[in-house]
């Protein structure tokens, strides 16, 4: 049980992967008779201690398989943990009467969990969703001879080996060569660089129609001119009341203007109402 606790500790998010690898490498490998005995105890008696020993003795194989997937840029510790999940599933389903070693049976389950993890995390946008695409994804990485694009002969050879159309191989190669780009990432410092623009910057901005902008600008200028012309038709007191009530940030109250012109607040309200009517009439005439 002490070894089991150390294994769990080293597999924790803060654990040291190298220490974990060293720990599992010290766990003895079972021979065929020991493995069959433990597997029978688990299969017929549901002996959990036997299951634990079967899992611990095969952890080193998970590490070996996980290292073969290091080229995907994902943490080794995560690949190992996913592989361990597959190992536990394999131990649970292992039938000792079939006559094969556990490692031969478990390799499928270990790789399956790692494949799922890689496809979920290698790209934000999934590059392979169907069973055929997943097969092509992993085989294409192993069969490519270099980092550059494959030649037509290489594409045809891979297509023949995997039993798919050459166009499918080209499509998957393009997906694998692409990188994730944030849809609405901020524009880079170099505005002239094409690479500094995210997809959102290429969407049509309907509000940026030059014709509409010019029309709006002309309308605003025309409205301001009409307002100024209409204001000129009012007397000084009426212009001041409207300005103080509507055209300044710190608007005056009826009582403030009543005190200024030594009249009642009701009189200021009447003057304001009359001035607004005259202003509307004057703007209509100007228009």
Automatic annotation (TrEMBL):
GO cellular component, one term: cytoplasm
One Pfam family here: Sigma70_r4
Motif residue range(s): Interaction with polymerase core subunit RpoC: 78-81
Cytoplasm keyword on record: yes
Molecular function per GO: DNA binding; sigma factor activity
NCBIfam families, sorted: PRK06596.1, rpoH_proteo, sigma70-ECF
Protein name, as recorded: RNA polymerase sigma factor RpoH
Source organism of this protein record: Nitrincola nitratireducens
Lineage: Bacteria, Pseudomonadati, Pseudomonadota, Gammaproteobacteria, Oceanospirillales
